[in-house]
Amino acid sequence: MSTESRILCPALQQRVTTAEAAAAMIPAGANVGMSGFTGAGYPKAVPGALAERIKAHNAAGGKPFRINVLTGASTAPELDGKLAEVDGIEMRLPFQSDPICRERINNGTMNYADYHLSEVAQYAWSGFFGKMDIAIIEVVGIREDGSLIPSSSLGNNKTWIEQADKIILEVNHKQNARMEGMHDVYYGAALPPNRKPIMLTEPGQRIGELYLRCPIEKVVAVVETNAADRNTPFKKPDDASRKIAEHILEFFDREIKLGRLPKGLLPLQSGVGNIPNAVLEALDSGPYKNLTAYTEVIQDGMLKMLKSGTLAMASATAFSLSPEGIEEFDKDIEFYRQKILLRSQDISNHPEVARRLGVIATNGMIEADIYGNVNSTHVMGTRMMNGIGGSGDFARNGYLSIFMSPSTAKDGKISSIVPMVSHVDHTEHDVKIIVTEQGLADLRGLAPRQRALAIINNCAHPDFKDQLLDYFERACASGRGMHTPHLLNEALSWHERFEQIGTMKPNA
Ligand code: COA
């Protein structure tokens, strides 16, 4: 498809309009389902035009104009940032990582519901979010029959298109038109009791269609754009990330020798961020060949692994590439097209598939406690960072769930291993491995008190180790329940100390 002719459907050519005209079709209070996942494939023009409209409305002193924004996952300043800046979001779900949204969520001026990403579509089908008024979906192009060539993320697009009364399409000429053919849109999902097995037994299998179906009569506007996805550069792996990656690779080697992992490992799920990217880099320089990935997001590290042959193929729902990653992808898209499949997020993160394939899940965390409960989302128990994303989908259902973090945060003032987590996202029942730059604790087969010693001895920073051992020993000696010993009046005192004096260290 050439850049000039991305809208081939004659009826939809008639509906081409400006972002401002499209934004004028969105009423206050609307439930709006937007495309977008980890800064890829989100609408670039209509949300900004809507924010301008809201700003003018607010300046004129009208009743607050807010909408509810549902997406695949995080978007970018042009969407979340602009709408949050004008206080235009009443409710946001299911994931965000925008600094202005974060501020509003934490100062109580924006509602936010943080859901497992695999479950959002079924909630929408069940009507939990109310009627979907409008879908705003970025696409690469529109075919003659009105079907859509998806963009750099699929996320919840299929569901929003099905559920919405009206659809606004953004056709983005900046997205590489040769992405056509990389998508696998599954139309067999249903609510219980009508569910059928998802017939995926290998990460690379196709079970769906190349294009998004789209009822032409629902499309009220088509807006043409020419703007790049958010593309944050990756930091070079620092010392802590490199050590975390080394511990994980040593662990894989050991598991292979013990016959508990096959030589080609199992399909990899890798969270976003610098530590997961460092793990991918380390895997790429290891002895592995022909690995597979069944994950949410394709980062730069995965492109490199595909190129080197470490990875044979990757299934995901979105890209999340740096500027160099995008350049590399565009340069060699024919190669990557053979190796990458993008699916809807209810399939990329499907519990049934993650369990069947035996995914190895590697995700970041904010803190873990001595018994293996993990907090991925809340700083000091109350302040939302980003959200749970897909980490729960994979941690609960994968074969191995690995959680990683440097052992300290904020210049060493915070220990990421604490007596009790201040918020629980992943329980001790789901968390198998904890890794910091200090070492790795394999929790499988251990009872709670054994887990505590493994975590403290292997993962805690030396500045906090004695303090943790002292807590654990006194909890054991307290004469209370010995299954999971705690001193309830002290369990969250580390967080309280940080809030009061700016450090978790005892004698500061
Ligand atoms: N207490 C307070 N703050 C902490 C902390 C702790 N225990 N641990 C980390 N932080 C802060 C860091 O200081 C940093 O703050 P800054 O942005 O002000 O510098 C921030 O949290 C991010 O930490 P960082 O060490 O840079 O890690 P990261 O970028 O890898 O992010 C998570 C870690 C947990 C926030 C991130 O992995 C996440 O959002 N996870 C949940 C979603 C998920 O797992 N998605 C993947 C599924 S595909």
From TrEMBL:
InterPro entries: AcetylCoA_hyd_C, AcetylCoA_hyd_C_sf, ActCoA_hydro, ActCoA_hydro_N, NagB/RpiA_transferase-like, Succinate_CoA_transferase
Domain Acetyl-CoA hydrolase/transferase C-terminal span(s) in chain numbering: 337-471
Coiled coil: none
UniProt-annotated catalytic positions: E296 (5-glutamyl coenzyme a thioester intermediate)
GO MF annotations, alphabetized: acetate CoA-transferase activity; acetyl-CoA hydrolase activity
One Pfam family matching this protein: AcetylCoA_hydro
Residues of the Acetyl-CoA hydrolase/transferase N-terminal domain: 13-174
SUPFAM superfamilies membership: NagB/RpiA/CoA transferase-like (SSF100950)
Annotated binding of CoA, by residue: I366, N386, G390, K410
UniProt entry keywords in alphabetical sequence: Hydrolase
NCBIfam families for this protein: YgfH_subfam (TIGR03458)
Family according to the record: Belongs to the acetyl-CoA hydrolase/transferase family.
Protein name: Acetyl-CoA hydrolase/transferase family protein
